[in-house]
Amino acid sequence: MSGGIVTLVGNPRGGSRTLAVATGAAEALTRRAGHADPIDLVDLSALGPQILSPVPSPGVEVALELVADASVLLVASPTYKGSYTGLLKAFLDRLPPNALAGTVALPLLVLGDPRHALAVEVHLRPLLVELGACVVTPGLALLETDLPRLPDVLNSWFDRVLPQVRPALQEAARA
C-alpha cells in the first residue's frame, strides 16, 4: 500500500464538474482528517482512448497501480443513464480480483436528477465491494443543484464517514 489518498475520476470529459467536485472532496477530506501527504489524481478523461486499447499503455498501467495501492480511494463519476460511466467501469474491469482489498473507498456520484440518488449505493458500491474495497456508508449522491453549497455538503458527508476513513489514514501514516 502506498498509504495515500487517491482520487479516481470517471468523467470522460476533461475539466468536468465531476473532476472539480472530486478534487475539492479529496482536499476537504485531507484537511478534516489532518492527513498531510499529497493526493494522487487519476483523471480517466486523459486516458480514455488507451483504456480499451489492445496495446499496453504505460499511463493506464501507472493509473491502475496507483488505484490498487491506495489506502483511501475516492471514486467519482457523473451519472449516465442512472449509473456510473462506462469509462469508469472499463478502467476498473482491468483490475484483478480483490485488487482493492485493504482499501477504504468513498463512492461519489454527481447527479442531474434526484431520481438517480440511489445509484451510488445500488451500482457503484457493489462494484467497489466486488474489487475487495471496504466501502464507507453512505456514499455521496451530489445533485448538481447542490454545487453552490459544496463545502457544506462535503462537511455533512465527512461528519458521517470520517470515522470509517480515519483508521486507514492512521495506519497509512504509520507505514
Structural class: alpha/beta
Number of E-state strands: 6
Give the termini distance in whole angstroms: 9 Å
Name the beta content range.
15-25%
Structure description:
The chain is an alpha/beta fold and 175 residues long. It contains 6 helices and 6 strands; from the N terminus they run E-H-E-H-H-E-H-E-H-E-E-H. It has helices at 17-33, 48-51, 58-69, 86-92, 119-130, 150-174; strands at residues 5-9, 40-43, 72-78, 104-111, 134-135, 140-143. Strand 3, helix 4 (86-92) and strand 4 (104-111) form a beta-alpha-beta unit.
Q: Which helices and strands, and how do they pair?
A:
Layout: E1 5-9, H1 17-33, E2 40-43, H2 48-51, H3 58-69, E3 72-78, H4 86-92, E4 104-111, H5 119-130, E5 134-135, E6 140-143, H6 150-174
Parallel strand pairs: 1-2, 1-3, 3-4, 4-5, 4-6
Helix pairs in contact: 1-6
Could you write a compact summary of the structure shown?
The protein is an alpha/beta fold and 175 residues long. The protein has 6 helices and 6 strands; from the N terminus they run E-H-E-H-H-E-H-E-H-E-E-H.
Name the descriptors:
175 residues, six-stranded parallel sheet, alpha/beta, 6 helices, 6 strands
